[in-house]
Every structure is written in C-alpha cells, then in structure tokens.
Design goal:
This protein has about 325 residues and is an alpha/beta fold. The protein is built from 15 helices and seven strands. A seven-stranded mixed β-sheet has the order 5-4-1-2-3-7-6, sandwiched between helices. The longest helix is centred in the first third of the chain and has 15 residues, at about 60-75.
Length: about 325
C-alpha cells in the first residue's frame, strides 16, 4: 500500500477520540492506519505552549497547519527562486541531480539541496509542467520506487567511459573495434527490434533482428551473432547508455569482447552506427512490423549494399 499522509478529516478524528480518552490502538483501527503512524502524528504535531501549559494538547486544525508548514520547508526548490533557476540551468546543461547536489556541497553554498529533493521536484507537478525529466540521463514518465532503483554509476561505471578507450580504438587503427545500437519500432507492433553493429576501421556492418527488448535477450543474441568471428575481429563494442545494454558484463566472459559507453545523451560519439541507422531507417521506418516480415522481404527491403544471411538473420554491408 502506498504511503499517504494524514488529512484534516483524520486529524480531527484523532483530536475527538483523544478527547474521549480512546486508546491509540482503537484510534488507529478506526482510521485504518498503523498505530505507529498515529503515535508519530500525535508526537510530531502536538501543540506546546511553555507559557500556558494547560493549553498543551493535540488539535486537528493546528496539526494540519504544522504538517503543511513542514512540507513547505522541505520544498526548497519551490520557495527559493534563485536556487530553482540554478538547478534547472544545470539540468539543461546535462548535469545529473547527484552532480548538482554534490557541487553545492563541494562549494560550501549556504543553501543546499539533496538529489532526492531535485528528483522530487522534477517528477512533481512543477517539474512535469516544465518537462524537466527529458534532461535526465535516464528519462521516465514517473520515478521508480526507491528500493527498485539501481545507481547508474554502477551499471555504466566511469572506467567504461568512452574517454577511457585505448588510443588505437579512437584512431581506428585496428580491426575489431565495433559500435552498437538498437533500432526501436512502435510498441504497438510488438517487441521486435533490429540491432545494428558497425566495425569502426572498415565500416563493415551487421544488422540482426531481435524479438525481445530485454537486455538479457539482446546480449545473448549479440553474442550468438558475433561468436563465429575470430577473437581479433571482436575486440570491443561501444554503446550508448540505453538500459537495453545494461547486461554488457556478459560480453567479456562470453566472447572476450570489451564494452565502452558514450557520455550521457551523447549518441553522436558513436557516429558510425548512428549514420548506419539513418540510412536503414529509409527502408525500415518506425511503423515497420518487423516481427511479421519474412526473411526474403527483409533482404529485399535493406539498402542495395546490405544483405542478410538466412542462418543468422543478419545483414552485411561491405
């Protein structure tokens, strides 16, 4: 059951039942709340007057005002316009909420804000009206449950950054360094997609149909397609930070292939495969029912220089 804060009606009920000398356990049962929630509510929002102690007690209306004031204090990004503008500006420049919060602490700013507060603002009514979520490295319609999240720093660690690639990969000196991507089609047509791979030195391209969007299925299919190549021909693959590539750790023990990743929101850093995707989209637009197409149709719809081998449903570009 999702957490919901008490409202004014419930707080008035607590006041009336306390005045009637009802035990907290019965108050909680009447409200359909856990008794710990009621105990906490009475303790946090109880009225205290040191000059007139006989007035001390729990009052529903006063408790509601106290709770609302506490929530307002937490919403720094609503109250403080300068802080809000600074945070939004950094979001638009590509900073993550963790980076923004960490920088405020590093600089010793008098007013700070945590990354959780920034996320809450982004996915709250104010942030949604400004479409701030589109500036995040990982964009979702709503935020995941806290304990269902995985830090993206662990999924794509800094040592796998494209900036850590060996120099011979960057300069295209050796054969066997690839770029990979996924061509997604309209969800109403099913989960089928087309994975694309380009060898950086020769521009040799491989496209294969994939019938599932899960990262596990994609990586297994990719290894099946790449495994027939000799080891020197599959040294590394550079991906973007899409969630479909989060099972990249399977590549090294599976087929001996290293994985590198572009910066957040920087797919242009793997320009070879992006260019291939643009060319392929002329023949496979987003409304293409990929799963329903025959192998013969797939071969015929590919660019003139592309052909697919029947054994692996794979296109080759020479």
């Amino acid at each position: 059951m999702a957490h919901t804060e008490l409202d004014l009606r419930e707080r008035r009920t607590i006041e009336d039942m306390l005045n009637a000398k009802m035990p907290v356990s019965k108050i909680a049962a009447a409200l359909g709340r856990h008794r710990s929630s009621v105990y906490r509510e009475i303790k946090r929002n109880r009225f205290e007057d040191h000059e007139l102690p006989y007035l001390n007690g729990y009052y529903g209306v006063n408790a509601q005002r106290t709770a609302e004031a506490r929530r307002a204090r937490r919403r720094k990004l609503v109250r403080l316009a300068d802080l809000r503008k600074a945070v939004i500006s950094q979001l638009k420049e590509g900073w993550s909420p963790e980076q923004i919060a960490g920088r405020l602490g590093f600089e010793g700013q008098p007013v700070r804000v945590s990354h959780e507060t920034i996320y809450a603002y982004i996915y709250g009514p104010d942030g949604q009206s400004e479409e701030l979520a589109r500036h995040l490295p990982s964009r979702r319609k709503k935020r995941q449950l806290r304990y269902a999240r995985r830090p993206r720093g662990l999924v794509f660690p800094p040592e796998r950054s494209i900036h850590q690639r060996p120099e011979h990969v960057k300069s295209r000196e050796t054969f066997g360094e690839w770029e990979g991507d996924l061509m997604i089609f309209e969800r109403a047509l099913g989960n089928a997609n087309v994975a694309t791979l380009v060898e950086r030195k020769t521009r040799y391209a491989v496209l294969f149909r994939n019938h599932d969007r899960s990262t596990t299925h994609l990586m297994n299919r990719l290894m099946d397609v790449m495994e027939p190549l000799p080891q020197p021909a599959r040294r590394s693959i550079t991906f973007d930070r899409g969630i479909e590539f989060r099972s990249w750790r399977k590549l090294k023990p599976g087929i001996g292939t290293e994985a590198w990743f572009c910066d957040p929101q920087a797919p242009w850093q793997k320009g070879s495969v992006e260019n291939l995707n643009k060319r392929a989209r002329r023949y496979l637009p987003r409304d293409t029912p990929v799963a329903a197409l025959s192998n013969r149709y797939m071969k015929g719809s590919a660019p003139a220089e592309c052909r697919m081998t029947p054994s692996h449903e794979r296109f080759h570009v020479s």
